[in-house]
Amino acid sequence: IIFFDIFFREPPKIQTKGKK
Q1: Is a pLDDT exceeding 60 seen at residue 18?
Q2: What's the rounded Cα separation, in Å, for the pair 2 and 20?
Q3: Taking Cα atoms as reference points, which of 12, 16, 17 lies closest to residue 1?
Q4: Which domain of life is it from (predicted)?
Q5: How far is it, in rounded angstroms, from Cα 8 to Cα 10?
Q6: How far apart are CA 17 and CA 11, in angstroms?
Q7: Residue 19 pLDDT more than 60?
Q8: What pLDDT is recorded for position 15?
């Protein structure tokens, strides 16, 4: 699950989930 990926990202980029 890439939940922290979206949460850790400052900008809400859910489309680019995978790059923290």
Answers
A1: no
A2: 10
A3: 17
A4: Eukaryota
A5: 6
A6: 11
A7: no
A8: 60
